[in-house]
Design a protein that fits this description.
- This protein is an alpha/beta fold and about 550 residues long.
- It folds into three domains: about 290 residues, Alpha-Beta Barrel (TIM Barrel); about 80 residues, no CATH class; about 110 residues, Double Stranded RNA Binding Domain (2-Layer Sandwich).
- It has 17 helices and 14 strands.
- α8 links the parallel β6 and β7.
- α4 packs parallel to α6 and α8 packs parallel to α9.
- It starts with about 30 loop residues before the first strand and ends with a helix.
């Protein structure tokens, strides 16, 4: 790979000191969705007018107060869409539609024509200022490019004042800002601001786009801070950023830009846009949310957002998207699963006000998701198996038994070379431990209380015949153990016993777990399920004996 073919495409930022590294984000920015313009122009099949209307209404529902609806001079469809929004009064009074126009006379005039009757709108004027575009595309000098911007601003202001009656605000973008000399970017933007004459009551938006990402996010932050410190009318302007994702850092660039003085973010749902996309507003908003900041967007039903996005854009959501991906709340690693389970159990038992989890930055339920079903494969461990068995089927398996069962699941998954569904894990547990009937089967039993002791008479089937055994102990389980010891001549010891109601399966059933030793160190585990707790414990004991006999 010929790396010498490339060199830095950005100019040094003459910033003497940086404030942004010590700043913190404390509140949501002004959001502007550009899904209907930047996002739409990047689709194989752009949206129809009906689709754009429906998508616009959904963006309003999500809480966007500023929505860039298109480039009215670009096509009749774009023009007609804006007219439909205005003529049919589909724009809420608290929402501003934003329209894009190049600093060219006929485009500006067509754009203003499309806005007649709009109550609240933003006219977004732009022209490219980068070194490369000046030289290659426009072949104009710095002064000529600045004059192009100034002339565009003069025309926009004159037409707005003479033809439009609504609350019309201005926005200016020095396109390809990241590849523009910073002092020149300030010079052009200030010249435009001198024309637009922003006030604290009618602020102008200065949008500083990362039209193409050419540097790390910290360089973009430096550029934004430089503009923040050097633009005129700072109290009367809103600094906006519009980050693309060519280096995969559109989100990071936008977040650092807020630290550097930006007030507003333009982006799209899930980052759709030209080339590698735009800044992902869903990710930025939920990044704020998990830091305790209200994002001021309605994202509590993320699957609904996904459905609408995929409907209008006809693009999939990556399964590993930070918050919306179908695998975002799935862990395969055993240590991850164990830590997640323990944290969620503790969070629930303590009733903590604050979410704390080693591997999940957000509580999935806050956006309509669940950490379930957990995915189990050969890389998983006890925590994941325990979670599935408890949350899905109601089994709280003893720790030592769980360690043994987890190895069984690992072997099954390893041979299968894929994940196991919860039902497969449940079936494996039943096949391995629950109510086992071979080589020994409990046919029936009867207990009698004799003072503090219990006497049991049980019939067991083994080797093709039925045998009656008798035993006595402190309870049915102790008595059956004594009877089996007498019958087999083995020294059996129950070293572990647990039981609970099997609530997830049926509130009328109980499950018992028995650990039995046979004079050695090895524990043989069995489980029993029955409506009667005594019967479930005896089934568990017989299951353990069957496992022991097969060893």
């Amino acid at each position: 790979m010929n790396h010498q073919k490339y060199k830095k495409a950005y100019h040094p930022v003459p910033l003497q000191s940086r404030d942004w590294p010590n700043n913190e984000t404390t509140h949501a920015p002004i959001w502007c969705s550009v899904d209907l313009r930047d996002g739409n122009q990047a689709l194989y099949s752009p949206m129809t007018i009906d689709e754009k209307v429906e998508f616009f209404q959904y963006l309003v529902k999500l809480g966007f107060k500023e929505i860039e609806v298109g480039f009215p001079a670009a096509s009749q469809t774009e023009f007609d869409f804006l007219r439909r929004l205005i003529d049919e009064e589909l724009i809420p009074d608290d929402v501003s539609v934003q329209v894009l126009t190049q600093a060219r006379e006929h485009i500006i005039k067509r754009t203003i024509e499309a806005l007649h009757g709009a109550k609240n709108a933003i006219v977004h004027l732009y022209n490219s200022t980068s070194t490369l575009q000046r030289r290659v595309v426009f072949r104009k000098s710095k002064d000529e490019i600045k004059q192009l911007a100034v002339d565009g601003a003069i025309l926009v202001k004159r037409l707005v004042d003479s033809e439009l009656d609504g609350n019309i605000r201005y926005e200016y973008s020095p396109e390809s800002f990241t590849c523009t000399e910073m002092d020149y970017a300030v010079e052009v933007t200030n010249a435009v601001l001198d024309v637009l004459e922003p006030t604290s009551e009618r602020k102008t938006i200065v949008n500083l786009p990362s039209t193409i990402e050419v540097a790390t996010a910290n360089v973009y932050a430096d550029q934004i801070e430089y503009m923040h410190k050097n633009l005129k009318y700072r109290d009367s302007i809103i600094i906006s950023v519009h980050a693309h994702n060519d280096r995969g850092t559109g989100v990071a660039s936008s977040e650092l830009a807020l630290l550097a003085g930006a007030d507003r973010i333009e982006g799209t749902l899930f980052g759709n846009g030209e080339r590698t996309g735009n800044a992902d507003i869903v990710t930025i908003a939920l990044n704020m949310f998990c830091q305790g900041i209200d994002p001021e967007l309605n994202l509590e039903k993320i699957d609904d957002v996904i459905e609408k996005y995929e409907k209008f854009n006809k693009l999939p959501i990556h399964p590993r998207h930070p918050y919306a991906g179908e695998m975002a709340y799935v862990a395969f690693s055993g240590s991850h699963q164990d830590a997640i389970k323990k944290s969620m159990d503790l969070f629930e038992s303590e009733g903590s006000t604050y979410w704390q989890n080693p591997y999940l930055t957000i509580d999935p339920s806050d956006i309509g998701r669940e950490y379930e079903p957990i995915q189990i494969n050969s890389q998983s461990g006890k925590g994941g198996v325990s979670y599935v068995m408890e949350k899905k089927f109601g089994y709280t398996i003893p720790k030592s038994m769980l360690a043994e069962f987890s190895k069984i699941i690992t072997d099954i998954s390893d041979k299968k070379h894929t994940v196991l569904e919860p039902e497969e894990i449940h079936q494996a547990f039943k096949d391995s431990y629950v109510n086992l009937t071979a080589p020994v089967k409990l046919v029936s039993y009867h207990c009698e209380q004799n003072g503090e002791n219990t006497r049991i008479t049980a019939y067991i089937e083994s080797d093709g015949g039925v045998t009656c055994i008798n035993g006595e102990g402190t309870g049915p389980l102790d008595a059956i153990c004594a009877g089996v010891c007498g019958y087999t001549g083995r020294q059996l010891e129950i070293v572990s016993y647990n039981e609970h109601a099997l609530e997830r399966s049926s509130s009328s059933k109980a499950v018992s777990y028995i650990g039995v030793k046979n004079g050695g160190d090895k524990i043989y585990w069995g489980a029993g399920v029955d409506k009667n707790i005594n019967t479930s414990s005896i089934y568990a004991f017989i299951s353990a004996i069957n496992i022991m006999k097969k060893d």
